[in-house]
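As the next step, I selected for study a record pairing a protein sequence with its backbone structure tokens, which the following lines show:
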Amino acid sequence: MISENRKNVTSLDVESKIRLLLTMINDDGHVKLKSSLDKLTSRLKDKLEDYKEVISKNLFKQILFLPLKTSIYSTIASVLFTKDKQFVTDILNTFIRQIQLKNNETSKYYD
């Protein structure tokens, strides 16, 4: 029981860190962007096998809610694509489906 609780806490810690890293990237300006991207993508690639769902969910949310950073997130996705093509393909397919759903909902109001 204790190890299960410890695993849950660790999982939450990792998810929080991933979310924070994805959210905060480039908040300090373009000067450190390349360095920040290199560090972040390296960390994500290292954690990809163990935390695919967490990375996917948080990357998807960042793309939706921080559209000004889309170019940064596409760079991250490109780097992750070199590690696991199917993982990034799944993220993109999910994103496309969500856009299509939103378009269908919106088109009801304009028909």
The radius of gyration is 16 Å. Residues 1-7 have pLDDT under 50 and may be disordered. DSSP finds five helices and no strands in the chain. The domain at 2-110 is CATH 1.25.40.180 (Serine Threonine Protein Phosphatase 5, Tetratricopeptide repeat).
